[in-house]
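As a warm-up, study this chain.
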Amino acid sequence: MNYWLVKSEPDVYSWDDLLKDKKTTWDGVRNFQARNNLKAMKKGDLAFFYYSNAGKAIVGIAEVSKEAFPDPKDSNWVAVELKPKTKLKEPVALGTIKADKALANMVLVNNSRLSVQPVKPDEFDRILTLAEEQE
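Now compare it with the structure written out below.
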């Protein structure tokens, strides 16, 4: 299994929207590196759901329910289908992530603009621990 992070602005598409919809097509990605990450996603992979701009925090975990297919808005690009897996006990803010030495090499810390990014298994586990530790 691989781990990922996908970004959304909460006023555009929120974690609550994903819960309500039960699944969504993750489309509209227009960056080659992010597109390659979408293509690498496999059914069953897990992805952190991250609020960019407003919020700047990981709030939940989604599961890849359908692997890459042509983006319905532009077939030169790809999309995946995601479904909600679990909401984190507490959001993990970008500031918390940047302050944690164990996460110093995380893509989110070093290339924060990338909208779909890989997450290493140890990073994934550390984020889950941070979500549990916060009050």
